[in-house]
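We modelled the chain as a single entity of 288 amino acids. Its sequence is:
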Amino acid sequence: MFIAMLVVLSGTFSNAVSAQSGKKQKYKVAVCDWMILKRQKLGAFGLASEIKADGIELDMGGLGKRPTFDSKLGDPVERQKFLDKSKETGVGISSIAMSGFYAQSFAKRDSINLMINDCVATMKNMKVKVAYLPLGTESDLKKNPELRPIVVERLKWAAKQVKKVGGIIAIETSLSATEEVALLKEIGCKNIKISYNFANAVDNGRDIAEELKILGKKNIGQIHASTTDRVWLQNDENVDMPKIKKTLDDMNWKGWLIVERSRDVTMVRDVKANYGANVAYLKKIFQN
């Protein structure tokens, strides 16, 4: 009887501790649904759960020459399936991604208003507070500085739309942190922040921790915590993860760390191995 009571009490205490630690968790780890080959597929939640990710970055779908994204999420019935699957698996949605702008021009495409409004409506209906917008190759402000006025103008307009739902748009650029701070000041709205990508720093010989300090807590909407495909994060000599964690701790930043790449090129097609290893490493450093 006494032993049984101890077991029950121990289990109750364990559950309480688990719930408490979950509640206090500052950092959560997600994967991009398109990078795990499950773009806008319900199977993304099951796969993310299998590799122990806390969430997925859910994509709006392809663009091509369409006036807006090829998305199922505007359909209430289809959208509910995603929300139900998220609840069933315990895998959250870190952000709604507009990955179509990796290759399409945010500066030059027509019907930008429709695209942004579709994304914002999805955020509202799925209760997601962050949208991810990569400026990509076609609107790269480093290579095409002449596009800056139109990009700023469009982002100012987009900021007003996402503000209506109490969310933010986190933009990814090829600029340095100092240049990104200047860009945000030019935009002048707290509903536009930076989606910071480790790869941008590493590929340009910049220190990740120093870049994060320059950006500051209030300017970072989310973090793509991976580099260009080569080796797993734990084997990447260019990424000092404990230093990065200390920097974010000191800044008192909290939010989503999203794995996009950092695949081992000798086994680049092995989704479970690559993303499982990177998720496990991030959790070891940030959630231990």
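As a brief sanity check on the tokenised model: The mean pLDDT is 93. The longest helix spans residues 2-24.
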